[in-house]
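Researcher: Here's the sequence for the chain we discussed earlier.
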Amino acid sequence: MDAVEQTVAALSALVGKGGVLVLSGAGLSTESGIPDYRGPSGMRRNAQPMTYQTFTRDPIARRRYWARSHLGWRTIARAAPNAGHRAVGRLQARGLLSGIITQNVDGLHQAGGADGIIELHGALDRVVCLDCGERSGRDALDARLARANAGFAAEAGGINPDGDVDLTDEQAAGFVVVGCTGCDGMLKPDVVFFGESVPAPRVQDCFDLVERSAALVVLGSSLTVMSGRRFVVRAAKLGLPIAIVNQGPTRADTLAGILLDAPLGAVLSAVAWALR
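Model: Thanks. This is the structure I predict for it:
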């Protein structure tokens, strides 16, 4: 048995005890064709995420965002769960997980068979009005944007981690942004943009899950930002066993008793098979 096999066996033994909280990040969805912000080297990719301040204050930037997101949404909507998502769903169905917190906004955990997920940063398949607070489905907005932009001819290139694509200002010029159907207010994807805070009740729900869990397993997150890393820090303070499976280094490697740098689909499939 080589070192990777030994680590997978240790991870399987930990998960097999039950009460495991999963914290997932963008690395879990890369095998579904959605890139993460940092590759295996840990270096940040070139994609620059939209900030809340820019989105709300700059009409031109907001138009450009919606043009890019309108094209990117088709890729996100077509993305299928990979072996890693399906394995997490099977582990939950077997009663081994205390909960799932995901930093992802792609909905692939649910598509892979899991439920009851805390979506830390929201979800791209919902839209919220910043004026009246009404939430609605993304498919309905997609249809409205398509009707309002029947002549929009730009084509999507590669998808970005936050679900949009790269377009120049010239390509986005003339794109028509629609408002809330109820109040004509400003619409925004129901996700937490950079510079925006995760709602406090949602954060507290996550901390409560950590408190009730017997172990924490991190899947596909570099833990670069405190938004997710704080739960690993809390688990460490509580003395919980911590395992990290990620391609590339993370900012919490020193807190993990089990550390595995390997493709997540294969690793999680092996764990689910061992615990079948």
